[in-house]
Amino acid sequence: MCPFIYxxxxxxxxxYQQPNQLPxxxxxxxxxxxxxxxxxxxxxxxxxxxxxxxxxSEALRAASELxxxxxxxxxxxxxxxxxxxxxxxFKYDQKKRQKEAKRNQKETVVKEIQLSPVIDKHDLETKxxxxxxxxxxxxxxxxxxxxxxxxxxxxxxxxxxxxxxxDNLADVAQVDSQPKLDGKLLFMTLAPKKNK
Length: 196
Description:
The protein is an alpha+beta fold and 196 residues long. 30% of the residues lie in helices and 31% in strands.
């Protein structure tokens, strides 16, 4: 028996037609020129003029006379809508717009600063200066303060440290989420001020 043939239900099936081993289709779903399979379509010229509903061969002829491509822009409408255009230029412009959009997209980075309820004033200023640098680079900062042992009984100290930290950065940062207590962890989020 050939290792490349399977017998399923009395039918001989080559190995590549097994459901989990089908050959991959090429991703050529672009309906351009000869790949268009519609018999009739509504055709729009490159200048926006309407040719009306014409056959595939007439549309291809009209596009080739202008030395342009026929591209289906709306395959689901009845009848399908095609446009005569320079397809390579269209694809180039589309890629250029996508690159531009990607470049303009800002990636939000969240940095983290940890404080203590019994932090020294100088240490608090040092942490505030670090946070200031993060904020000036348009990053958000998560500020967390952990209560250790019996310190949880003095939550007011933790909230006071958080308030001093906010006051220290009031010129560049705004509070994105107010200080919240979750178990033994007090945290808040700071974001760059919108109208600096």
